[in-house]
Design goal:
With about 260 residues, the protein is an all-alpha fold. Helix content is about 70%, strand content about 0%. Helix 1 runs antiparallel to helix 8, helix 3 packs across helix 7 and helix 4 packs antiparallel against helix 8. The mean pLDDT is about 80.
Length: about 260
């Protein structure tokens, strides 16, 4: 007879929620290094891009995200799960190369980086015991991209991506990509703009890719950590999201 493990206790639930809140706060700090490198403000970055590029960002991002879904999934049969530091190292190197030639090379690098970011999110899912081949997990991986981005933390939208998953079908996944793409386009547009900074393009490209990978890895840990906690604690996922939000919105205690 199989013996089932008892759900974890309330004390363990709170401890794991607080650990996820700390991850979330570390993600919030990911954009600081970008602004330190480029010496600018996030709000003005998109204005650095030519209007024709800004107008095509959503379409480019939608296409890159759909290609990334297939490419990231195929790569799992060739490249094993990578530790987080290796994903950050790879994307950092690609960002530096993408920034060397300014906007043309940055645009060429965009779909590759999107694929690497999605693959990094999938690796986090595996770390929490989920199978990226399952449609529901694929849906969750794309959902992580609905987070606000490393340069936007003013309106609480960086926790808005945490939601209860509905029934997942191929149509639902494609609809999610269509919904996420405009937000991700703004996020990646800021990255592209940072890579066009004269002289600093390569350094800014490396910094942005490192920060973006760090950010989405942390957000993936929050997302899949909450899903795993719901299983381990035998608690409703939406209730855990509410508890997480309450803790995340409580200012951290400053030590004297």
């Amino acid at each position: 007879m199989e013996i089932l493990e008892a759900p974890i206790g309330p004390g363990d639930v709170e401890a794991r929620l607080r650990a996820l809140v700390r991850r979330h706060r570390r993600a919030e700090n990911a954009g600081i290094q970008i602004l330190n490198v480029i010496g600018g403000q996030a709000e003005g970055l998109l204005n650095r891009l030519p209007s024709e590029v800004r107008n095509q960002l959503a379409e480019r991002t939608d296409r890159a995200l759909r290609m990334a879904m297939e490419a990231a999934h195929r790569s799992r049969g060739v490249v094993e799960e990578m530790p987080g530091w290796r994903s950050r190292a790879l994307t950092t190197a690609m960002g530096g190369l993408g920034g060397l030639g300014g906007l043309p090379t940055a645009l060429a690098e965009l779909p590759v980086t999107t694929t690497m970011l999605l693959r990094a999110i999938q690796d986090v899912a595996v770390e929490h015991g989920f199978d990226p081949a399952e449609p529901g997990v694929q849906y969750d991986c794309i959902q992580v991209f609905a987070a606000a981005g490393p340069l936007d933390h003013d309106d609480g939208s960086d926790v808005a991506f945490l939601s209860t998953r509905m029934a997942v079908t191929g149509t639902a996944l494609q609809a999610l990509i269509t919904r996420v793409a405009p937000r991700l386009a703004t996020v990646l547009g800021q990255k592209l703009a940072a890579q066009t900074v004269p002289i600093l393009g390569a350094a800014a490209g490396a910094a942005t890719n490192f920060a973006y990978t760090s950010y989405y890895q942390q957000m993936a840990h929050v997302h899949f950590g909450l899903r795993r906690l719901a299983i381990d604690a035998d608690r409703p996922h939406d209730r855990l999201i509410e508890e997480f939000r309450a803790l995340a919105e409580t200012p951290p205690v400053k030590r004297a």
